[in-house]
Sequence to fold (62 residues):
Amino acid sequence: MLQSGITSGVATGLATYSYHVERLFQHWLLAWLTSWALMIPLVLFAAPAVQRLTFLLTCNDS
Fold:
């Protein structure tokens, strides 16, 4: 959950950087909360598959 929060926070910060300064924080906060809410289930369900794939790709059978 922390990783998805950090990643979505950075991504939305970069995506909203071009907005007017006086509304930047409000726009960023709404975009971040929305993206984090969508990313949490994705990360929780994808994490086991990513872990298995990483193991398969890095497993040394010798």
User: Anything to note?
Assistant: The mean pLDDT is 82. Residues 21-58 form the longest helix (38 residues). The CA atoms of residues 16 and 27 lie 7 Å apart. Helices lie at 2-15, 21-58.
